[in-house]
Amino acid sequence: MSLRNTNIDKLQQENFDVLVIGGGINGASCAAALAGKGAKVAVIDRADFASETSQASSNLVWGGIKYLEGLEFSLVRKLCLSRNKLCRSFPSSVREIRFFTAHNRNTRHPRFFLYLGTWLYWLIGNGFTKKPSIFSKKFVEKKHTVINTQNCSGAIEYSDAYLMDNDSRFVFNFISSAMRQGAICANYVEAEGSSQEENGWSTVVKDLQGGRSFRIRSKLIVNACGPHVDFYNQNSGQKTKHQHIFSKGVHIIVDQITPAQKVLTFFANDGRMFFVVPMGDKSCIGTTDTKVAEPKTHVTQEDRDFILQNINALLCLEKPLTHNDIISERCGVRPLVVEKREADQAADWLKLSRKHIIEVGDNFISIFGGKLTDCLNVGNEVVRFAEQCGVNLSHSARRWYGESSKQCRDTFFYQAQVLKIPGKHAKRWWRFYDIDAFELLANIRRDCHLQELLIPEIGYYRCEAEFMRKREIVTKLSDFLRRRTNLAMIMNEETLRNHLGIKEVTKLLFPKTFEQQWQEYFSVTANDNLRASK
């Protein structure tokens, strides 16, 4: 029996301290925190973990320098400290990176004023990163020839951080951490509504793969449904002071624009910050910021045109980027928090705060907003509220986040070297699997055929497919291609379809349903492309 089926049986049969509904960054961090502190935790998501907003970010872990303009010093301070903590706690996965910001003389702030702002930002963040720098136009022309300097007065450089791998993998690692601490997690399980009983909450759910409906019983509910928090609160009779409005963000992925491992930062023609973020040998460009009425959205031709027009104006490329250069796209909504009485008056969502709000009532916690950078704060706050709601945390002093120790990591790298695993592949294994990566080495010692490299582009081995099938609840092919890895981001549909290694991995992940999974994935992808082209 698969891990997912075993977990669904446990969800139906056992009683839990906490049911976390939603497996995005908020739900995943809460699950890891609560399970790590000793609570008996269940986690469900109606799709895959990290399959909505949490798979569509810029992959940045940053303190929010742009929020200084709105004088949100407290929020910037909080996010900077959270960024610092993530960098210290996940040194393999969250790395400092320089942001090289070309200054257009037509922007609303002078270059030196922005330079002073980066120093303020550095000071607010306790001087954790490298110090800011300021450069002349001649320097930009000499060192960054890809930048269009026609209206450039110079540049500023400062530091923030980014995720070495994709955001959804980072989120799943919190789910994995929760499972190591005993949490029972299942994807493609939809919560239809929660109601109070004598001993707590009863939540009606449906297994969207198997079709059966059942109840999950828990003392406490955590509504971590991201942009769907309001909808689930309505279904469960919960009244809150806050609600969400939505802003759509789109990125496009193209072949690498510059080998410099820096984030190129500009101001788009709508005044927003606009990035070219390194993604291996690809570049991620964006983002847009468009108000939308519903969380379900998709990339439009207008979105692509906006990004392409801006990037072609800001860079000096041998050939302007066109729609044909787009390898893949990322699209999601930012759930922005407003008080209900202010929702209709929030005309300028660009000025809305990106802070999170947590509301608690009747042992029912609702999380509004939230960012990747803020995940540790969200987890810690929910732990505190859970304790106040009477959840017994048997390991309340235990640290629940962070990768395993440097000594453990160095031991793994040594053992990987003995088995002749290339260093860059061993580093990715550690980022993906942490202490469980030792299991990959043990399996290779048991069967040398598991050391076969199946997907050279990311250094993916046969032993990983075996591990993911057993341990990572890969239920659909898109879970693997889009979220457990970033293959669907760095390869177009044709490359994916014709890749023999990916086909072999699919057979290993789904030995009984390979053809069904393969056809389903590419038919859905084709339909999405057809819709997006209209």
From TrEMBL:
Instruction: Give the organism, scientific name.
Output: Uabimicrobium amorphum
Q: Which UniProt keywords apply?
A: FAD, Flavoprotein, Membrane, Oxidoreductase, Transmembrane, Transmembrane helix
Alpha-glycerophosphate oxidase C-terminal domain boundaries: 410-496
Tell me one Pfam family matched here.
DAO
Protein name stated in the entry? Glycerol-3-phosphate dehydrogenase
Cofactor (UniProt):
FAD
Q: Which family does it belong to?
A: Belongs to the FAD-dependent glycerol-3-phosphate dehydrogenase family.
Question: Tell me, which GO biological process terms does this entry list?
Answer: glycerol-3-phosphate catabolic process
For the FAD dependent oxidoreductase domain, which residue ranges apply? 17-336
In terms of InterPro entries, this protein maps to: DAO_C (IPR031656), DAO_C_sf (IPR038299), FAD-dep_OxRdtase (IPR006076), FAD/NAD-bd_sf (IPR036188), G3P_DH_FAD-dep (IPR000447)
Q: Does the keyword Cell wall biogenesis/degradation apply?
A: no
Looking at the UniProt entry, the stretches that span the membrane are 112-129
Q: Which GO terms describe its molecular function?
A: glycerol-3-phosphate dehydrogenase (quinone) activity
Transmembrane as a keyword?
Answer: yes
